[in-house]
Design brief:
Layout lengths: L2 E4 L2 E4 L10 H5 L2 E9 L2 E2 L2 H15 L7 H13 L6 E8 L17 E8 L5 H6 L1 E7 L14 H12 L4 E6 L2 E5 L3 E6 L2 E4 L10 H12 L4 E3 L4 H5 L3 E6 L3 E8 L2 E2 L7 H18 L3
Parallel strand pairs: 7-8, 7-14, 11-12
Antiparallel strand pairs: 1-2, 1-6, 3-4, 3-5, 5-6, 8-9, 10-11, 10-13, 13-14, 14-15
Bound molecules: N-(5'-phosphopyridoxyl)-D-alanine.
């Protein structure tokens, strides 16, 4: 049975109810996080909760819990499910109001919701062959650095990929790579790893940080800089990264092969570093 947390209670997910007057429902007025859990241990929990805190501050929603409070609820949600590897979803909305009104309620009562699902690793086939992606203009708003539940643009952009049997949509704004509809994107050219700089145009990914840390630790040449569209299209390797997909090679873009069209050596290496890093973190090392 899938158990969720809603406003202080643990209950079966299909019995959880929120008001239709919740501003999360009416306006997408909320913040969220997706936290991977390996061997029952949340990965980079403090970093996810710090990003949640930044999103909530920008949304002017008081953070209902401190690090210890959140950690306890996440631990309880993890304990209530049978899987060793889980994906914990956490959401805070501005809560319900008496009337629909764009302006905030005078005394908001945030809605807090957590749930968990099994975290299914990338298939051997996906890791061996990579995935296909398309590209589209990035028409989202100018606060893509905030992890808000208002994801309609991301959903529309992701569906364009699904319609074409692809895994992700790469986004370009004003001729430069921003990110994917639900992932960050890395580029490899001439043995150098390239990553777009953090800005209001992309989500500062927790996995993105881990990948750059691993590149630095292992002495892989890397540059964080603006990446023009033609450098993406002529890349040797492209990867997508996220908390649920980890590091996944993109081997086709807009129906053309990326580099050789096979998973590249640097992506394989990064994947191995990532798995080794996860293992040491989960052993508490
Ligand atoms: N999405 N960019 C966007 C737009 C995202 O939605 C995500 C993650 C990322 C990667 O961030 P991180 O490495 O912190 O997961 C980048 C999550 C997984 C989701 O919405 O399901």
């Amino acid at each position: 049975m899938n158990i969720c947390y809603l406003n202080g209670q643990y209950l079966p997910r299909d019995e959880a109810r929120i008001s239709p007057m919740d501003r999360g429902f009416l306006f997408g007025d909320g913040a969220y996080e997706v936290i991977p859990v390996y061997s029952r241990r949340p990965f980079r929990l403090a970093e996810h909760l710090a990003r949640l805190d930044r999103t909530l501050a920008a949304l002017r929603i008081a953070n209902p819990y401190d690090l210890a409070g959140w950690s306890a609820i996440v631990a309880e949600i993890v304990a209530r499910h049978p899987w060793a590897d889980q994906s914990v979803y956490l959401q805070v909305t501005r809560g319900p109001d008496a009337k629909r009104n764009h302006a905030f309620p005078a005394a908001p009562q945030p809605t807090v919701f957590l749930m968990s699902d099994e975290l299914v690793a990338n298939s051997a086939d996906q890791l061996a062959e990579g995935v296909a992606a398309i590209s589209a203009p990035d028409y989202r708003w100018l606060r893509c650095d905030l992890k808000t539940t208002a994801l309609l643009a991301n959903c529309l952009l992701r569906q364009l990929a699904v319609d074409k049997g692809c895994a992700e949509t790469l986004l370009f704004r004003d001729g430069y790579l921003t990110e994917g509809s639900a992932s960050n994107i890395f580029v490899v050219r001439g043995g150098v790893l390239l990553a777009p700089p953090k800005s209001h145009l992309m989500l500062p990914g927790i996995t993105y940080d881990v990948v750059l840390e691993l590149a630095a630790r292992h002495g892989l040449s890397h540059e964080v800089r603006e990446i023009p569209e033609d450098e993406v299209r002529s890349a040797d390797e492209l990867w997508l990264t996220s908390s649920t997909k980890e590091v996944l090679p993109i081997t086709r873009l807009d129906d053309r092969p990326v580099g050789t069209g096979r998973c590249g050596p640097i992506g394989r290496q990064m994947h191995a570093w990532y798995q080794a890093f996860k293992d040491t973190e989960m052993r508490g090392g």
